[in-house]
Amino acid sequence: MSRATRRKHVQLEVLHDDFSAPTENQRIVKVLNSRGNNLHEVEAPDKSTFLVSMPTKYRKNVWVKRGDFVLIEPIEEGDKVKGEMVRILTHEHIKYFKKDNVWPKEFDVKKEEKSDGDDVFVNTNRPVVDSDETSDSSSDDGSHKSDSDS
C-alpha cells in the first residue's frame, strides 16, 4: 500500500470511526503537551499526569495538539509511558459520549459547551479591527494632517 493510500485510510478511520463507548480498560484523557518522539503528556480525570505513546499508524498522518482528547489503553511495560492511544476523539465523539453519560465530569467545561458550534479557527496573532473604527480614524488622521500643514 502506498504512503498516500495509507494516509487516506488512517484519516478516514479517525474521522469516521465508530462511536462505541470505551471498554473497562480504556480511559479518556486530555493532551497537555507533546514530549517528542511520539510521546504526549496527558492528564487523566483524576488529575494525574503521565506519558502515552502514539501508535505507528498515526505517526506522520494525524496530529494531536494541546487540549485534544484521546482514548488510551494502559500498557504494563515501562515506568514512564503508561498507555497507548487507541482513538483520537473528535467533537462528534465528545457529543456522543456526553449523550451516553460516558464522558468524565472532570472534563466538562462550560466554555467547551458554549463554543460547540464554533469550529472556525480564530487567529489570535492578528488584532481584531472593526471597519467602523478604521474609517473614523483615517478621516481623523487626514483632518489633523491638513490642519497642521496649513
Supply the CATH architecture: Beta Barrel
Beta-strand content estimate: 15-25%
Shape: globular
Strand order of the largest sheet: 1-2-3-5-4
Mean pLDDT over the residues: 80
Query: pLDDT below 50 for ≥5 consecutive residues: which ranges?
Result: none
Q: What is the radius of gyration computed over CA atoms, rounded to a whole number of angstroms? A: 23 Å
Query: Which homologous superfamily in CATH is the superfamily?
Result: Nucleic acid-binding proteins
| H-E string | HEEEEEHHH
How many helices does DSSP assign?
4
- Classify the helix fraction into a percent range: 25-40%
Structural class by helix and strand composition: alpha+beta
GO cellular component, one term: nucleus
InterPro entries: EIF1AD, NA-bd_OB-fold, RNA-binding_domain_S1_IF1, TIF_eIF-1A
Region (Disordered): 112-150
Biased composition (Basic and acidic residues): 141-150
Any overview of this molecule?
This protein is of the alpha+beta class. It has a single domain (3-149), classed as OB fold (Dihydrolipoamide Acetyltransferase, E2P) (Beta Barrel), CATH 2.40.50.140. It is 31% helix and 23% strand. It has four helices and five strands; from the N terminus they run αβββββααα. The chain has helices at 3-15, 91-99, 110-114, 131-149, and strands at 27-36, 39-43, 49-53, 69-74, 81-89. The chain has a five-stranded mixed beta barrel. Strand 2 (39-43) and strand 3 (49-53) form a beta hairpin. The longest helix has 19 residues, at 131-149. The termini are far apart. The mean pLDDT is 80. Keywords: Initiation factor, Protein biosynthesis, RNA-binding. Residues 141-150 have a biased composition (Basic and acidic residues). Belongs to the EIF1AD family. Residues 112-150 are annotated as: Disordered. GO terms for molecular function: RNA binding; translation initiation factor activity.
